[in-house]
Amino acid sequence: MSNSYLVTITNESGAVCGQLQEAGNSTNCYNFNPLTSLGDLLNIATYSGTSPYPQDNYSFTEDYLKHPFFFGREYTGNPLFKKPYSFRHFFVAVNELKEIITNDSRFSMSQFEILKQFLSLGFTSKIEFREENPLYELGYKVNSLNSEVVEKYQYVSVSYTYSYDMDSMFGENSETPHKFTYTCYSVEDIIFSVLHYLTLLEYGFKRCDHCDNYFATKTFKVKYCNRYSPYKGRENLLCNEAVDRIMTHITKRRNSIKTSLYNYHGDAASDFLYEFTSHAKAIKSVHNLKTLEHITSKDYVKQKWYKEEYKNKKS
Ligand SMILES: [Zn+2]
Q1: Tens digit of each residue's pLDDT (9 = 90 or more) over 39-77
Q2: Are 196 and 136 part of one and the same domain?
Q3: Ligand 1 center from residue 125 Cα (angstroms)
Q4: Whether residue 45 sits in one domain with residue 133
Q5: Number of folded domains in the chain?
Q6: Is residue 224 part of a domain?
Q7: Is residue 222 part of a domain?
Q8: Residues 75 and 200 in one domain
Q9: pLDDT tens digits along 215-239
Q10: What's the mean pLDDT in 201-212?
């Protein structure tokens, strides 16, 4: 990577959106999700963990090109360095990112500043907030100063004043629509510009209960990320939608199994319900949902609960 890249992160109606663009090339433009893209990055680097040097512990997985940060191009490392050092920066950065994401405590802006020095990051940022356009309020259709169409809202750069209140602007309850534009010069800059945004807006990282990948969230009560579910046959649904749909399906099966088992033998029905409940209490990971699907399948139920020993027992 030798040119510069623009990372734009907006939050206009509670939804965080990211866009990545090569400077001067508006056709090469990727939308990405700032809340999941860093977690996905951990999946494109395979960790072998045998060397004391982080850069020697990682290699790319085959499908790394699908990650938006690479613009669909093969990454040849930092052109300033000769191989094998050209990938060093990238893997050191990924190693740091992994430490931050998998750590239980939240990353702070002061930690970020230290890291920025350590990783020689060079991105710059511009922060803008959306405000109502006073000209629009006054009924103007065109701004006479620059003959631009007057929109209802405009983005205004943040200027530093002594009354600048970090908490009300970026704090947990901040709802102010905003736009961050980062100018980046390397893939490491792109990665850490996104982390800069998340750190400033007080996001933390957790694993999705369903797909097990890391995502950024402000409230740790949220269980699921907004990736598409990896569950076979439900890949077109987001994690939370997939869990709801699968559980509805499994609950229907549970109810009809319960009814027909009661007709067979009361003990069989209650033994089945005991097994079902013990699995249903667990988190709704892909693996656990597969188990629930299995124990409510026709074959399994037939061979496990319709047994002579129940018939021989008195209810
Ligand atoms: Zn998920």
Answers
A1: 999 999 888 889 888 888 888 898 899 999 998 888 888
A2: yes
A3: 30
A4: yes
A5: 2
A6: no
A7: no
A8: yes
A9: 999 888 999 999 999 999 999 999 9
A10: 95
Of 160, 162, 178, 182, nearest to 170 by C-alpha is 178
Q: How far is the CA of 228 from the centre of ligand 1 (A)?
A: 7
Distance 145 CA to ligand 1 centre (A): 49
Per-residue confidence (pLDDT) for residue 166, from 0 to 100: 62
239 in Cβ contact with 229 (< 8 Å): yes
Q: Are residues 170 and 267 in the same domain?
A: no
CA 286 – ligand 1 centroid, Å:
10
- The pTM (predicted TM-score) of the whole model is 0.86
pLDDT at 1 over 50: no
Find the 35 Cα to ligand 1 centroid distance in Å.
11
CA of 240 to the centre of ligand 1 (A): 7
Distance 159 CA to ligand 1 centre (A): 38
| Residue numbers of the domain that contains 72 | 5-217
Q: Ligand 1 center to residue 103 CA distance, Å?
A: 19
In angstroms, what is the span from residue 55 Cα to ligand 1's centroid? 28
Residue 2 has pLDDT above 60, yes or no: no
Shared domain check, 162 and 93: yes
Distance 144 CA to ligand 1 centre (A): 49
Query: Do residues 20 and 127 share a domain?
Result: yes
Give me the mean pLDDT over the 271-296 stretch: 96
CA of 195 to the centre of ligand 1 (A): 19
